[in-house]
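pinned: reference chain
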Amino acid sequence: MITKAQNPSTTLYYKDGKSDKVYNLAIVPSGNGFVVNFAFGRRGTTLQTGTKTASAVDLDAAQKIYDKLVREKTAKGYSPGEEGTPYQQTDKADRATGIVPQLLNPIDEGEAEKLLADPAWLTQEKLDGKRVLIRRDGNTVTGINRTGLVIALPQSVVECALKIDGSRWLIDGECIGDTFIAFDLLEQASVNLRPQPYRKRIDALYCMPVIGPSQPIQFIRTATKTADKREMLAELRRQNKEGIVFKLIDAPYIPGRPASGGNQRKLKFTASASCIVAGTSGSKRSVKLELLDNGHRVGVGNVTIPVNKDIPATGSIVDVRFLYAYRSGSLFQPIYLGQRDDIGVGACTVAQLKFKAGEEEA
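pinned: its structure tokens
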């Protein structure tokens, strides 16, 4: 049973045939009590929202309503995994946490310019790593990937996490090699911080000791003033970084990806896509790539695997950076980035592609 300070939330998915649905559920403080809110609908569309409590109830009543809804949905095949494949009675069952991160929608240069000038939005670097949440509960430190599954963490990160003040917390961030970059604090001392505005969550994150530039766990750099945001953008471009992230300063943390817009957005400087490996091609160090187009696999060319990286197996998912894509079905100047074990095949769609100028409308 949670304490009065904890307000759980979860995002569940269901995919079967033509069905591709999402269901969000949360206990939210309201006056002197709590309400249980939900949102549901087809993934990629605007979700319908509602409440299971016409008026605020005490925490015990809200928890019972919440738990009942989670049981009902999981019994119908919903799961925390973005692919909507139930973890029950599989080898992933004991790894499912029910915790998933908030995901960002991409924007173009024009929208980015507006957000640079808007004081309601801050900026951070878009990192080129793997999305990971770290949860500490006493002496136990757990890594959680973007699908809500428990994963291994670098030992140096675990040791650093055990030194951070507070025995119970949940931090969102990205792992780049053996370093974890923290950019959000979701729970602290068993208190759910997700409903709080981002400015309060990040202030609390920055106040956590031990995290710092020379540590395995580090803070993300943030800019809030227009001049500083523009300087950060120019610096990241000069350094050929992945991109820049915009976050609404007063927004709560909402797990999952909104159908459009959202209070966290990203501008990518380079194009990249997660592709399905369809086998080797000619050279032993070249593999064929495929993407999903309306549910059908289509070839998008080949990519060479560097000699210092393992050749990915057929059926695995890899990230590839490219200059642009041709409508004829190939990536121009693809560069192999590495394998992905935190996303499913359903994420490998042609919607990721950036087409050569003049071909997008073809």
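why pinned: The chain has three domains: 9-92, 105-268, 271-352. Helices lie at 59-75, 109-117, 155-163, 198-206, 226-238.
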